[in-house]
Amino acid sequence: MIRIGVTDLGGARHEVQANAGDRLMEVLREYDWGVAAICGGMCSCATCHVFLEQDWFDRFPEADYDEQDLLDFLDHRAPNSRLSCQLTLEPEHDGLQVTLAPEE
């Protein structure tokens, strides 16, 4: 199992578990405090926006053009912003730390 530390919009910390091959969005949308993920992972709405802790940012492939394009339009974009629908979890992501981004 992959353990993920999540800070929700209210600042509360949670620990969740995922399996290798899961997309981070799929894990986070299962919780009331999680992401909306309105488009279901099609990289077309940015309602799964998260901030990766800096130590983890480079442990995922770079954002592709479509993800970058969506991120560019967000008011709350930060250097460590990613769309969780584009992040596939692998065993090396055990211990990942993320913060949910404010809703746009």
Task: Please tell me about this protein's structure.
The protein is an alpha+beta fold. The protein has three helices and five strands, in the order E-E-H-E-H-H-E-E. The chain has a single domain, classed as Ubiquitin-like (UB roll) (Roll), CATH 3.10.20.30. It has helices spanning 24-28, 54-57, 65-72; strands spanning 2-7, 13-18, 49-52, 81-83, 96-100. The radius of gyration is 12 Å and the shape is globular.
What's the SSE blueprint?
Blueprint: E1 2-7, E2 13-18, H1 24-28, E3 49-52, H2 54-57, H3 65-72, E4 81-83, E5 96-100
Essential attributes:
104 residues, 3 helices, Ubiquitin-like (UB roll), alpha+beta, 5-stranded mixed β-sheet
Here the CATH topology equals Ubiquitin-like (UB roll)
From N to C, what is the helix and strand string?
EEHEHHEE
The CATH class label is: Alpha Beta
Please describe the biggest sheet, giving its number of strands, its sense, and whether it closes into a barrel.
5 strands, mixed
Quickly give the CATH architecture: Roll
Category from helices, strands and their pairing: alpha+beta
Which descriptor suits the 3D outline?
Answer: globular
Sheet with the most strands: spatial strand order: 2-1-5-3-4
Tally of separate domains: 1
The residue fraction in helices comes out at: 10-25%
| Radius of gyration, CA atoms, in whole angstroms | 12 Å
Gap between N and C termini:
32 Å
Instruction: Identify the CATH homologous superfamily.
Output: Beta-grasp domain
| Strand residues, percent | 15-25%
